[in-house]
Amino acid sequence: MPVTTASPAAAIALHGLAHTYPGADGPLPALAPTDLEVREGEFVSLVGPSGCGKTTLLRAVAGLLEPSGGEVALLGATPRAVQRARQVGLVAQEPGLLPWRTVEQNVRLPLEVTGAEGDVGAMLRQVGIAGFERYRPAELSGGMRQRVALARALVHRPRVLLMDEPFGALDELSREAMRLELLRIWEAERITVLFVTHAVREAVLLSDRVVVMSPRPGRIVHDLRIELPRPRSEAMEDSPAFIEAVRRVRSALRADELAEVRGDEQASAG
User: Fold this and answer.
1) What does the pLDDT read at residue 82?
2) Which residue has the higher pLDDT, 38 or 82?
3) Cα-flanking dihedrals φ and ψ of residue 117, to 5°?
4) DSSP labels for 188-235?
5) Of 90, 120, 91, which is closest to residue 104 (Cα–Cα)?
6) What's the N-to-C CA distance of the chain in angstroms?
7) How many Å apart are CA 223 and CA 54, to the nearest integer?
8) How confident is the model over 192-248, as pLDDT tens digits?
9) Residue 142's closest CA among 129, 133, 158?
């Protein structure tokens, strides 16, 4: 796949990215031609209705899916080339830990596979799970397992972190703790993050920009800059500026849902 032309500061650049899945009843368009740039060091969240192509887009950026059309540039190269250079970390909704390996062994796994260097102990301390090195995944809570998954994604110090609803399976208290942990780590490291979530407040708290996608086939319909000061904290969620930012994102989501309903009604009437 050719590399798209992007601005020099773009860590992620999509140009006309599109994908169609084969289906029993014919092709199933998942992602309409989409353009997006994420600057190096930015935290950008993707929000939108279920099935709108958020995960498809993220998988294409990660090099896990060959899109039907368009181009992806990751750090100026193809996604697979960047993966080979060990510059990307990926965290999914399910931690995907190996049950027979300890916490320390799970976090060390990317270093063993790729030959990259990293400080496992320091990373465990950074995500707040030091002291559990010898535990196995079954002995940990859901929030702790997700901390291990985050440590595994970051242990080789990637330049880009891709996250697909990483806190979606957690209870609300664990989710709040993990989003604050991620915020703390990002504030310290300032790596590029592309983050998929259904939670609007979470997206606003974490992000520099919130990108709203339409129902399937997904396309970007709004790109909202979050003008909140950093560093951010949980206390900020009660501020008028935060509440207004959440309102703007929800309004964008509702506007697109209403447009879809009107389109369906017009099609039915026709």
Assistant:
1) 80
2) 38
3) -105, 150
4) HH--EEEEE-S-HHHHHHH-SEEEEEPSSSB-EEEEEE----SS--GG
5) 120
6) 40
7) 14
8) 999 999 999 999 999 999 999 999 899 999 999 999 999 999 999 999 999 999 999
9) 129
In whole angstroms, give the CA distance from residue 108 to residue 104.
6
Containing 5, the helix (H) or strand (E) segment is: none
Q: Which of 238, 166, 164 is nearest to 201 (CA)?
A: 238
Specify the length of the chain in residues.
Answer: 270
DSSP notation for 82-98: HHHTT-EEEE-SS----
**At which residue do the structure tokens 């353009």 appear?**
35
CA 195, 87, 182, 223 dihedral sign is negative
pLDDT at residue 248 in the model: 96
The residue type found at 242 is F
Positive or negative, the Cα torsion across 238, 243, 249, 250?
A: positive
